[in-house]
Amino acid sequence: MHVAIIGGASTIGTTVAYTLSGLAPSVDVSLVDINEGAAWAHGTDIEHASYHFAHAPGAVPGHDTESVGTIRSATPDELGALDPDLLVFNAAAPQPDDATDPSAREAELERNLSIVRDVAEDLQSLDPTPLLVVTNPIDRLVYHFYTLLEWPRRCFIGYSLSETARMVDGIADLVDGHRNDVYCPMMGEHGEHMVPVFSRARVDGDPLDVTESERTELMEYVRDIPFDIAEERGVDETSRWVTSAGVSRVVRAMAAADDDVPIDGTPAGVEPAGDDWTFCLSTPLDGEYGFEDVSLGVPVDLDADGVAAIHEWDLADDESAELRRAYESVRADLP
Ligand SMILES: NC(=O)c1ccc[n+]([C@@H]2O[C@H](COP(=O)([O-])OP(=O)(O)OC[C@H]3O[C@@H](n4cnc5c(N)ncnc54)[C@H](O)[C@@H]3O)[C@@H](O)[C@H]2O)c1
Ligand SMILES: O=C(O)C[C@H](O)C(=O)O
Questions:
Q1: 65-79, 165-179, 204-218, 246-260: lowest mean pLDDT where?
Q2: Is there a single domain that holds both residue 193 and residue 311?
Q3: Inter-axis angle of helices 138-149 and 109-123, to 10 degrees?
Q4: pLDDT, tens digit, for every residue of 198-249?
Q5: Which ligand is in closest contact with the Cα of 12?
Q6: Interior CA angle at 181 toward 177 and 187, to 5°?
Q7: Which ipTM value was assigned to this complex?
Q8: Where is the Lactate/malate dehydrogenase N-terminal domain positioned along the sequence (predicted)?
């Protein structure tokens, strides 16, 4: 699989490339950026790092000489020639230093929309290719890419898995468990109107029992934590580790589904119990959950071509009402 990371010299893009070189070394990566010098410099540094990944004890498949992938750098006008299997969109305009509160994601819309328009021009020469949008505000930008490129809607995916990792950490603290045994899918907007699906949350396979005030506390934690992190570390760092691990998880799921067996988020070696590990990603809706002309986080299966299926879960009444609020919030900003 060949992944082109647009905005490849970015904090998140470089961390995704580094993570893939350790955990999915057979993936070829192109770092595509208007700052080609920085993309080349990061690519070269990561290539050097991959020598140590290859020689550390413990087997991660793909480090052998025959299968190990390449890391290249390129400019956006070279995208057509690269012919990637998957595009990751992480390009963004610089954030103001005070972008450390939950309104920061939506405030990026105007700044990043002009980059989306430029990149969509560069992508016109490609055949339809799955496009994973990480740049904020993801739901709105996914929908703009969808209307600009007119590729099949299954190509368009917005990354919103970081809040799942945050929510399960909050739940684990609450129930005195380990986050790795907790599942709580997050639907809706990647932003203020995220929708935790508590009705499907599990701890060690059992339903989660939380009070209304505990739910409110958990939501506040998930809303605030990325901005507490940005406050301490600076807006140039954002939440690079969880985001890059989550993006790499999506890339690896799509690579593993190369033989057209869809993947739903279930980790290797875990017996699926119903939909218990299904992940939620943003994708354009066409009537699912009663919504259209919008992109929202919904439970999906992935394959090498993008979204293979959208699951329509029976939601609790309050979850459906919150999903409608997410729709109204995102839809209000779209043409
Ligand atoms: N979805 C999530 O969970 C999540 C998490 C963290 C960050 N983000 C978002 O990811 C985005 C990127 O954050 P970052 O800190 O990695 O960015 P960054 O500021 O480190 O880098 C942005 C990169 O984009 C490049 N760029 C600008 N215009 C370009 C163009 N036309 N073509 C190609 N490259 C271009 C710049 O040269 C730069 O290298 C932001 O919108 C941020 O809010 C999303
Ligand atoms: O970078 C941000 O603005 C926050 C990001 O969307 C995140 O969820 O970590």
A1: 246-260
A2: yes
A3: 30
A4: 999 999 989 999 999 999 999 999 999 999 999 999 888 889 999 999 999 9
A5: 1
A6: 110
A7: 0.98
A8: 2-148
